[in-house]
Design goal:
CATH superfamily of the largest domain: Reverse transcriptase/Diguanylate cyclase domain
Catalytic activity: 2 GTP = 3',3'-c-di-GMP + 2 diphosphate
Structural class: alpha+beta
Number of helices: 10
Strand content: 15-25%
Domain GGDEF: 181-318
Protein name: diguanylate cyclase
Strand order of the largest sheet: 2-1-5-4-3
InterPro entries: Diguanylate_Cyclase, GGDEF_dom, Nucleotide_cyclase, PAC, PAS, PAS-assoc_C, PAS-like_dom_sf, PAS_fold_3
CATH class of the largest domain: Alpha Beta
Number of domains: 2
Domain PAC: 90-142
């Protein structure tokens, strides 16, 4: 039999101290709990560097449970106990409280050690610091939430966009139908906006859209009410829980607030300032009513207001 060179000879590792050195040189924190007594028989010294608690302070499972963030404690303890009782290996993510009152995200990987008769003898496992991973995941979720918000926001004016309106309108319609409460719409169009763009340019036109949107959003400012840009120079106010008189008052407020802005419009056929025309309507939806038909009805009222000379509202069919 060919002999191995001296530097390839296997090294005997039968001394417990070798294994302990290997365990305690890793970032993972090893531990062992005796199932019968529910007491720690070992925990790696790395625990003190991570959480600030000395290894000697980890006496029983109560010490472990007490050092779990209160929002995670009950579900984590219940899950781990149930899995251990069934003899199932498992993992648990939770926030562990440090000695200084801060917290660290931990992933506990647990292995159930059985006796020859199949009963649970002990639990052994490793604690891993996954704080950086959790922070990265939270950052991704935050970015996703921000992107979702942006996807429902008109990038030019900052108010809600057509997608948001198309999402919220059917939901508010169904709610009004179920509760018997009124639902009002106000569709708004800037008068002679093409002429405004032609005269002042598109940069100034964009600024005009932003200022009008801000006025309308201010007028609609009420819990549950929505101001959205439908496209171009057209906007809509969705006013759940608002009756016909309230919707008319809201529409007139839009006109008054815009007049106070005094945005010059030298090419308007309705005066020397930027004005709007509005279609207004209210409904208590019934089972046979259709939200699309109602929206079309208010749109027709808008064009009646425009046909009648602009800078006015129409809340009934001619």
């Amino acid at each position: 039999m060919t002999s191995l060179p001296p530097h390839f000879q296997p090294v005997a590792c039968d001394e417990p101290g070798v294994y302990r050195t290997l365990l305690e040189s890793t970032k993972a924190i090893p531990w062992r709990i005796d199932w019968a007594t529910m007491r720690f028989t070992y925990i790696g010294p790395q625990i003190e560097a991570l959480l600030g608690w000395s290894p000697a302070s980890w006496q029983s499972v109560n010490d472990w449970a007490d050092r779990i963030h209160e929002e995670d404690r009950q579900k984590t303890v219940d899950f781990c106990v149930a899995q251990s009782q069934q003899g199932v290996d498992h993992e648990a993510d939770y926030r562990a409280i440090t000695r200084h009152g801060e917290y660290v995200w931990i992933r506990d990987v647990v292995h159930v050690v059985r006796r020859p008769d199949g009963s649970v003898g002990s639990l052994v496992g490793f604690m891993f610091d996954i704080t950086a991973r959790k922070q990265a995941e939270e950052k991704i979720l935050q970015l996703q939430r921000e992107l979702e918000i942006l996807s429902y926001r008109d990038s030019l004016t900052g108010v809600a966009n057509r997608r948001m309106f198309d999402t919220v309108y059917p939901a508010q319609w169904a709610k009004a139908r179920d509760t018997g409460h009124p639902l009002s719409l106000v569709i708004v169009d800037i008068d002679y906006f093409k002429q405004y763009n032609d005269h002042y340019g598109h940069v100034q036109g964009d600024e005009c859209l932003r200022r009008v949107a801000q006025v309308l959003d201010t007028a609609a400012s009420h819990p549950g009410h929505l101001c959205a840009r439908l496209g171009g120079e057209e906007f809509v106010l969705l006013l759940p829980g608002t009756d016909a008189e309230g919707a008319r008052i809201k529409a007139e407020r839009c006109r008054k607030l815009l007049a106070q802005e005094e945005i010059p419009h030298a090419r308007s056929g309705a005066g020397r300032l930027v004005t709007v025309s509005l279609g207004v309507g209210t409904i208590v939806p019934g089972a046979g009513d259709d939200p699309g038909v109602f929206l079309d009805r208010i749109d027709r009222r808008l064009y009646q207001a425009k046909s009648a000379g602009r800078d006015r509202l129409c809340d009934a069919e001619a």
